[in-house]
Specification:
alpha+beta, TIM Barrel
């Protein structure tokens, strides 16, 4: 359905699948069969996406929408908030075999602080990413990141 208008902002790799595939992924996350949720953030400049669909680059700017989209799984009852955060943090790190995604003594303080009820509208030009390519332009989102810390240093603060 999202590709019916050949919107290049919906061109991703692997390509969008059917509703049945989406339902299967959601069920797998809900059952715990899929342990992590990640984003292949691929921002592009305007020219890379402003081309005929078959020639446009694949990928979207996804950092700012990943958390709110996962919170939709919480809202729909597929995941608890604790499980959603685990799917975004320590579970992918464990799958990759890296020491990350936990708040333990001696661990890097890589932390995302967010307002779980903060609402905002996706405005592509307001995205912090270099690329403004997103299929979620105009969408209302819940979950506003207020601070990001990298190794204990504040690298982003919502104004």
């Amino acid at each position: 359905m999202d590709l019916a208008s050949f919107n290049c902002n919906c061109k991703v790799r692997p390509p969008l699948r059917t509703q049945r595939d989406l339902d299967g992924l959601r069920a797998g996350v809900s059952r715990g069969a899929l342990g992590g949720i990640v984003s292949d953030h691929q921002p592009h400049d305007h020219d890379a996406k402003f081309a005929p669909f078959c020639d446009a680059e694949s990928g979207i700017s996804a950092f700012e929408t990943l958390l709110p989209l996962v919170l939709r799984l919480v809202d729909s009852g597929l995941l608890s908030l604790v499980d959603a955060i685990a799917c975004l943090t320590h579970r992918p790190a464990r799958i990759l075999g890296i020491q990350a995604g936990t708040l333990t003594v001696g661990a890097r303080a890589d932390i995302c602080i967010f307002d779980p009820v903060g609402h905002w509208q996706v405005e592509p030009e307001a995205l912090l990413s270099h690329g403004k390519n997103t299929p979620y332009g105009g969408w209302e989102m819940r979950g506003r990141v207020t601070h990001t810390l990298s190794d204990g240093r504040i690298v982003y603060e919502y104004q």
